[in-house]
């Protein structure tokens, strides 16, 4: 028979909580950086779209394209750039859950601002003094990591779509 693990010492718990808060801060920084990358991507994609529109005006490079061999790459590249813009937008759109769900979860959660807005000051103070913060913080770290992962994937796809789209539009411009 195995013996159950002994409870963690107070020092170990404090160290675990401090480590969890450091991880929380790092995830927050990574999320802020990916938001900045998405903003940069959206700026590139917007400028490229504006450039394509400007080059499609009368007497410009893309104004009188004849044949699907030139039109199709232009439209395909433009669509890929726009799809990249959608991915970049998905990164920076705030992720707020339904207020009803948050209100139900609020009594046992106190890190996310969406939960905190459903708490009363004295009740929250009591919960902070009495609750074991590590399980709540651990759950928040997992949720934040999932959000950060999705944001990084979206910005990755944004740059892929932009690069591929810009290359295809370039090919259409050379063929024009």
Structure description:
- With 176 residues, the chain is an all-alpha fold.
- It has one domain (12-175).
- The protein has six helices and no strands.
- α1 (10-55) runs antiparallel to α2 (68-92) and α2 runs antiparallel to α6.
Topology readout:
Blueprint: H1 10-55, H2 68-92, H3 99-105, H4 113-116, H5 121-130, H6 133-175
Q: How many domains, as an integer?
A: 1
Pick out the low-confidence regions.
none
Count of strand segments: 0
Query: What portion of residues is helical?
Result: over 70%
Shape: elongated
Largest sheet: none
Q: Rg, please? A: 25 Å
| Succession of helices and strands | HHHHHH
Alpha-beta content class: mainly alpha
Beta-sheet strand percentage?
A: under 5%
N/C terminus separation = 79 Å
Q: What's the overall average pLDDT, rounded?
A: 89
- Our count of helices gives 6
Structure at a glance:
With 176 residues, this protein is mainly α. It has helices spanning 10-55, 68-92, 99-105, 113-116, 121-130, 133-175.
Name its key features.
single chain, 176 residues, mainly alpha, 6 helices, 77% helix, elongated
């Amino acid at each position: 028979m195995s013996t159950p693990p002994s409870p963690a010492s107070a020092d170990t718990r404090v160290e675990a909580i401090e480590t969890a808060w450091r991880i929380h801060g790092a995830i927050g920084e990574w999320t802020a950086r990916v938001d900045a990358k998405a903003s940069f991507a959206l700026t590139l994609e917007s400028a490229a779209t504006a450039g394509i529109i400007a080059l499609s005006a009368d007497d410009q490079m893309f104004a009188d394209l004849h044949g699907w061999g030139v039109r199709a790459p232009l439209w395909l590249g433009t669509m890929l750039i726009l799809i990249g813009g959608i991915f970049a937008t998905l990164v920076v759109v705030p992720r707020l859950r339904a207020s009803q769900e948050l209100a139900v979860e609020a009594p046992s959660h106190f890190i996310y601002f969406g939960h905190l807005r459903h708490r009363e000051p004295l009740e929250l103070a009591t919960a902070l003094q009495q609750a074991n913060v590590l399980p709540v913080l651990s759950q928040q770290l997992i949720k934040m990591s999932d959000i950060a992962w999705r944001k990084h994937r979206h910005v990755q796809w944004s740059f892929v779509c932009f690069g591929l789209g810009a290359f295809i539009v370039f090919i259409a411009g050379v063929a024009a």
